[in-house]
Each structure stands twice: as structure tokens, then as C-alpha cells.
Amino acid sequence: MSFAVSQPVFAAAEVQKFVFVSPPQTISPGAVSEQITIQAQDSAGSESKVLSTACAALSSSSSGGEFSSSATDWSLVSALTIAKNSANRNFYYTDRAVGTHTLNAKVVLRPEGESRSCASWPREEWPSGWETEQRITIGASGASYDTSSSSSSPSNTVSAPATASQGGNSGSTAAEYKPQIYVSAFVPERSVAGAPALFDAEAVGLKKEPLLHARYVWSFGDGGSAEGKKVYHTYHYPASYTVLVSASSGEWSATDRREIVIDAPELVIANLQEGTGGFIEVRNNGAHDVDLSFWILKVASSTFVIPNGTIVGAKKAIPFPAQITGLLAGAENTALLYPNGNVTVLYKAQHAAETEAPFQAPVAAPVPTTPEKATSGTSVMKSSAPPAQKAAVSAPDAAIISASSISSEQSSQARQSAELLGAAGKTDTRGMLPWLLGVVLLLFIAVGGYLALLRPPQEPSAAEKLQKEAAEYDLVE
């Protein structure tokens, strides 16, 4: 038998509350509790998955109470992450203070734009959410316990009355307490794919004293591992990774866990200027700050290591001047490298058509020319210039020809200038400058001829007048 449904139906009940679904417990002082679970539920009390990542802040009415997400690798936590599409979150509790205490869990949905982890997100910024409580009793009725130890670290024993331990401490009793050391991992919240990230850790002993000779082993969540208190690791792909560090000293050990988000780099060499007064500008187009410490600027075979603590902000740029780097930037051989020497980005010069060209005067179109016989018998080129150009040329020519008082030398210079102007118009099509120079030269000669016409005639001298009068009369002896 089959049934047809016109459209899919999704059952997605909204979370209405969080509750403790594990039963209340009674444990020995210093022992680790059995698993404690909080659950998201709908209004009917049924399990309901959260539709986005949630954060659970844990607290106890006892000042000595401690929480951990693992019973065997104890690591102090105060906030836990409830993954998207999950409904349950487990944790463990220990305390040396005898009595009945109240455990409290406050849960909020983390906003989609919130990049900080639940552990690093300040609680004073948390919006209102859900709260749930449960009681836990430390110490069985009628039993006596030695609580004189200064350490409040948990052992791996189960709640009383138990006869065997949960962890690797075989032979221990429920009232037995084993001291524990602690380790804290210092992991950057974000880093960039392809760039080494720095990881550091600090371990303290039974009396919270620093462990100077502890052994640290790292697991970076991508298959990589390293040993050492301070190490570097490079992630090759953007993702969210879980980092674990284990510290051991003698028979004691401890583990801490952190998360790191690896982003794809969005760096470009946005601009450069060549020469000793130039610079190389690195721009961060990403949404997060990028630490450029120990990255490398390279021009040909010359390099400059960017100093520690150099950070380029989101959507910002840093120009690195040649006076500091000693690099003479070039459009063909400038690059930004990761600290390990791998190329991050190469400078790509813009195509000539995409760059802004400097201003140029309009270029006149070539003018067709025809040969014409000159009076001197040589062949010259007559320009079929536009009317406006003809007027600019013919007006000075007319003035020169009509000026009868101009000497033959000046007339020859005028003709040579006109021929020079015509030749410039024919042979140089790169701009208007040759034309303008020719026109100015013609105007200069024309003005000179015009001024010569306006000059008043010189009066003949007395000797010239006498000679002229004598020539008009015949002398009779």
C-alpha cells in the first residue's frame, strides 16, 4: 500500500526550554560525577534540536565546584558549545566541599554574525536565554572524608558508594582522591590558510606552581601534530579545527581543548611605485585583521621580512616605503610571501587599456595632399585643409603678397615658412603642436610686413633735392 503526499511536511518544533535529563547524583568529595546531560525540549517536553549553535554557561553554588567536558582528560570549562542540530550536551562535575549544591546552566543561541567561540564570548554580552538547575550532593550520609588537601582537582572515581574507579586508577575507592595538574592552551581564535599560526601552552602543578619541565604534545585537528611548549602549525585549507594539547609531568597529565577558525587570505598588492622614493602597498580585502608578522616582501631576489606585530586591518592597506624596506618595486617581479617562503600574491599590473592615460591634445586626422607646381619649378604639396585651416593659412599669405615694400628676402622667408607649415601638416599627425608653431611663425612674419607698410617715407636730404632740381634744368653757357 502506498500513500501520495501533495507536498513535503517538516516537523521542526521550536525549542522552549532546556532541562537536566540526567538524575541527581551523590558523589564522594573530589570524585568525578557520572555523566550529566542537559537537553533542549519543546513545549510538550520532547527533545528538540537547536537550529543554530548554542552556548551553555555552567556554574555551581559551591565555590570549589568544577566542570569538564571529559571525565578522563579533565579540563576546566565554564562554557560549552551545543552544536547546531543537536539537542543534548554532556559534561562532568567534581567538588570537595561536602554538602548539597545547585548546578546552574544558562543557554543562549549564538548570533550568526558572532565570530567568537562560546568560551571567549563574554557572558555580560549574552542575551537572555534559558536557565535550568539541578542539585548534586557531595559526600555520602555517615561517611567521613579527608578534605585537607590543598588541591581541588578531581580524581577519576565514581560516585559513592562505588568500589572501583571509572578511569585508569584501578584499585582506588570512592573516597580516594588523586591530585591533578592543569594545562591551558593559548590558541588564536582565527588565522589564515597557508600562514603558520603560533600555539602556546602553560601547565601548573598540584599546588598551582608552573611546571618548568612538562612535556607538551599538540594535535591540531587536521592530522598534524607537534611536541613543544610553543610551536607553529600551518593549516592548508579554510575550516574550523579543534586543537588539543596534553601536558605531562611524571605520573600526572592534563589536556586542554580549543577551537581555531582558518580563513582564506584576501590580501592583494594594491599599488606600487618604483624608485627609491616608492612603496609597496598591501591591502586586506577580508573581513578580519591579518597578522603580517614575519611575512616577506620580495622584489626579484631581494627580500624584506615584515616585523613582528605588523597587523593590517580589515578593508585597510599598509604602504611599505622603499626607504625602510630597501626594495625597489617593479611591476613584473613584486610578491608577498608567507613566512615559510610560499607565494601569497603576485603584483599584477593593470592592462594599458584599463589604466588612466595622461592627457593628450586631440590629434588631427591626416589630410590628403596633391602635388602642385611652384613658381620656382620645384614640386610642393598643396594641403586640402578644412576651410578653417585654409583661412588661417591664406590670410597671412595674402598680407605677405600685397606688401610691396617687403624685401625679396622677407618674401622668400614667408614662402619658406608657408612651405614649412604645409610640410608639418602633412608629415606630423601626432598632434597640433607643429601646426600651431607654423601658424605663429607666419603671423610673426605678417605682422612684420604690416608694420613695414605703416612706416612713413623718409624725407630726401638737401643734396638729393639739389641733384633732382639740377636734373630738371639745362645749363646754358
Automatic annotation (TrEMBL):
RNA-binding as UniProt keyword: no
Family annotation (SMART domains): PKD
Domain of life, source organism: Bacteria
Regions of compositional bias (Low complexity) in chain numbering: 142-165, 360-375
Xref: Pfam families: PKD_4
Protein name: PKD domain-containing protein
Domain PKD: 216-249
TM segment ranges: 432-453
Source organism phylogeny: Bacteria, Candidatus Tayloriibacteriota
Keywords: Membrane, Transmembrane, Transmembrane helix
Keyword Lipid biosynthesis applies: no
SUPFAM superfamilies membership: Lamin A/C globular tail domain, PKD domain
Organism: Candidatus Taylorbacteria bacterium RIFCSPHIGHO2_02_49_25
Region (Disordered): 142-171, 360-388
